[in-house]
Amino acid sequence: MAHKLAIVGFGGMGTWHYENVSKRVDEVEVKGVYDVRQEPMDTAASLGLKTYGSLDAVLNDPEIDIVTIATPNNFHKDIAIKAMRAGKNVISEKPVTIVSSELEEIMAVAKETGKLFSVHQNRRWDKDYLIIKKILSDKTIGEPYYIESRVQGSRGPLHGWRGYKVNGGGMVLDWGIHLLDQMLDMIDSKVVDIDAHLFSIHTPEVDDNFKTMIKFENGVSYLVEVATNCFINQPRWHVCCKEGTAVVENWDCDGKIVKLANNDELAWEDVIVYTSAGPTRTMAPRPEETTEQLELPEVEADWTNFYRNIAAVLDGKAELIVKPEQCLRVMKVVDAIFESHEKSHSISVNI
Amino acid sequence: MAHKLAIVGFGGMGTWHYENVSKRVDEVEVKGVYDVRQEPMDTAASLGLKTYGSLDAVLNDPEIDIVTIATPNNFHKDIAIKAMRAGKNVISEKPVTIVSSELEEIMAVAKETGKLFSVHQNRRWDKDYLIIKKILSDKTIGEPYYIESRVQGSRGPLHGWRGYKVNGGGMVLDWGIHLLDQMLDMIDSKVVDIDAHLFSIHTPEVDDNFKTMIKFENGVSYLVEVATNCFINQPRWHVCCKEGTAVVENWDCDGKIVKLANNDELAWEDVIVYTSAGPTRTMAPRPEETTEQLELPEVEADWTNFYRNIAAVLDGKAELIVKPEQCLRVMKVVDAIFESHEKSHSISVNI
Asked: Which DSSP category does B272 fall into?
């Protein structure tokens, strides 16, 4: 029998949960919706969903065993705690909270109640990410040492509540959370230093553009960038490994791998490139026959595995994929990003 | 009458000074060469240049009024000091020294002797750099807030003495010096924080790849990267200003400017992009009619102005362009880069 789900907060993401779970996840059934606004409630009713008059009404419905929270970020914690205490399993949209200490409160209640708690870190199933993850785990071009992960747009001012500090707005807590979660999921090492550069170009209260340079204990450095004021985009991924470079250009996953095929000592004397103000041997191009171009690997990218995993965990058949402890690491990185920005200095950590 | 120049160190760069000054700079004449190696001396002789048997022989030639030093980096200081004390004006190849304190010694001798001292920071005349400098000074796309300046190659192990620590090898002191000098020449503000990530992929003694994130007092952040193990190149320049983005792809100066033409509030509700694991409104593309594409500006990039300026300064007709105090700022940034790397932490500065 399918697990019954209620969605609290039926805006953009709430609607997306409904549509995708309804159409694509047999193991979970969306039963009803609660939103403080009338318009989303009307939409829910027109879709044949039960509309609850209050959060308590959701929590008092004994049929509901999972509550998905898709409200503005500042409401996640209180709703999650209340729902678990009412005996519900809980999925929170990201960012799970605004600071890590709030997530620790939630995790304490999950432990106390024994309920399942997870966070909708759906972008662990993004195809571009899974391609890079596979290149690294297969060691196609050897060990990584420098990775750039960027999401760039140019729409300027942030949409709705994402522009307000009280709601946990800003790009670190929005797209940043995804890129940081992917990073920690992929690099098997501790974060030791975080240097953050936040900008408020169009949205005075929060960061609408940021770059953060992160250093891992194993020697990998990792640049995470989110931009809303970038008019000429760079690749989604640029990954430097010891034996080659991989690029994924965009969400359609155009891109390539260029791999070192022959690292015999090159004849330096013969190859000089002339720039307008001088020559360079160091930056002369490498002969083409000493490299090999590979296509990006094929990967299966099925986001619905997120909800299938939740159902399987509740049925005692699987281990939880998106674990609260992992989300706590992400939130600790976020804490350090804001601290680094405030201090105009990098922050030493052990995360 | 042309100023008479002797070149000390007649390798790759020394030869380049000879060829370009001889062919293109009427105000300066290359008279002779000294190198500790026989082969370059034979080359010099075959070119009709005087070959000096020792550094002292150069310094004792009363006709010589400028000495250009193009030896490995660790010899610059002693030769510069000796030459100025012998009454010569001195141009040093970059990096002028390996640490800033050595440059301060040179500057003290320049002051004591009254001789001209400059550094061959020729890449202030690189066309790609002058294009970006003009875009910023013309405020074509408003104020900058984030700049990436990269030079990427894939030839791996560094050439000759550039691979050795004792010679001041490594990419920070090689291409890095140029990119940092351009940065300080362009951004009219103090450097306040430096976070450096150095890698030794193929050359164990020195950095052969590095990234450094630099924060200025005026709010600009600036990434400088030099790579010798990058197989898929990124643009030479990616410059984010408040009202647009400029890209120069390469030394041939392909590229473009995309400028915000209409920043009226966009209708957010209608535009959602679906990635494989979820929708995004924030990163949906901006309608094309709200931006405008401009060509990169035309600039004059004549490197020979470096030597013409030296001659004009000696003739009392101009102010020195590449000033030792500017080079000292660059060297102080370099000191902080190495310190940041050692400490795995950013370094607060006031440079």
From this structure: -
